Prior knowledge:
Blueprint: E1 2-5, E2 11-14, H1 17-31, H2 37-47, H3 52-65, H4 68-85, H5 90-103, H6 107-120, H7 125-137, H8 141-152, H9 162-175, H10 179-192, H11 197-209, H12 213-227, H13 231-247, H14 251-262, H15 270-285, H16 293-302, H17 311-323, H18 327-343, H19 348-367, H20 371-378, H21 392-408, H22 412-425, H23 430-442, H24 446-460
Antiparallel strand pairs: 1-2
Amino acid sequence: MRTYPDARGLPLTAVAASAVAAYDRAIDAYLASAADTGARVEAVILADPGMPMAHCLEGYLLILAGLPDTLRRAPASLSAARRRAEAGTARERAHVDALAAWCAGDIRGTIDRLEAILVEHPRDILAFRIAHYLHFFIGDLFQMRDSAARVIARWDESVPGYGYVLGCRAFGLEETGDLAAAERDGMRAIEINEHDIWAGHAVAHVFETAGRPLEGIAWIDRYRSAWEGHGTFARHLLWHRCLYFLEMEKHDAVLDQYDTLVWTASSEDNLDVANAASLLMRLEMLGVDVGRRWEAVAEVSAGRVGFHNRPFNDAHMMLAMVHGSRRNSAARMLEEMRHYASTATTTVAPIMREIGVPLCEAITAYAEGAFGRAVDLMMPIRYRWYVLGGSWAQRDVFQRMLIEAAFAAGRLPLARALLAERVAVMPRSLPSWRRYATVLDAAGDPAAASAARREADRLAA
């Protein structure tokens, strides 16, 4: 074994340059969220079973999948990587240490090790992308933004993969409120490589946050053919497309897209479940009859009771179960969450205890009509939902639920205050202005209600 340079000039322990080329192709597939990423990783390991980074990459991707089976398999990849890295480089051994921390549930320790690699090797795109994801996973939004800022100064457009780094930077900028810079960087990343679905996703978020639904639909439709081969994440972009239609109050179009694009068949994927549960909940809160659509999502969710790797996922599965005739499964899941939160020593455990459990208790209370209890559970944690991970757009379903619970509980001053806050932050949100008018009417302020209704009509026009 000797070292050969990868696409960005970093030494990689391998049997031949051809094996490194195969590894680079696998990395490119991962960065693009390509559906054949797993097959490409397997091809690298077949070509060079002794390559430490091939086994590290496999382990990272198994944990990223976040399924019970893939998480059980990750330690075997760690063992293989550890054996091979003994004769490898210091950077490769640092990756093994990062993978070991992640296998143990120490997400912050994993991030620390990856960011240390990036200080010495800012063009290690695998370390960068995994760190980017893990910042996102636990809601470290400003760290996610700054991680990209630290490395991108050592990149330029001549370095393969530059666009992917720029796309990650765009997402970090969007999530921390710099929409103009996010739109600029995301669009430039797509100009470099139209298959960079994460960059495209960052721009989709800009259009959603800025209240520009028509531009968002056009953006996704423009690149839809380029993104179709990108598996689950392609469906997530179509979920964003549904959010634009919700903002335009085109509910029938959303139901049709749900059936034909978002939840076309039962899926075990965490993102598919979150997409489906979030969209159905938003529709129901807008008064739309979703029929029996909850049932299929609830069935998948009920099969995951007792498995916890992310409170964000648990909350969406709880939504599905309590609205899809799986109340007993939901109750068991809450008990399992409480047990995990009090006994586990992982990074996720305190997040589960402080945010995940009370949020899922609120989701249950809401479904049972105990709206006041839902409000009491959600109000103390509403400014810490970000630690669940996910994006502002994804977590917004819980903010909407809080508003609806306050209104349903008869807490009109609170509902009014929350909606005043909402339209100040999202002044182009048609459904928000429409709901604001309803609450103002109920609160006995017809003049303010008329003004809110006029604003809704203006946006609708």
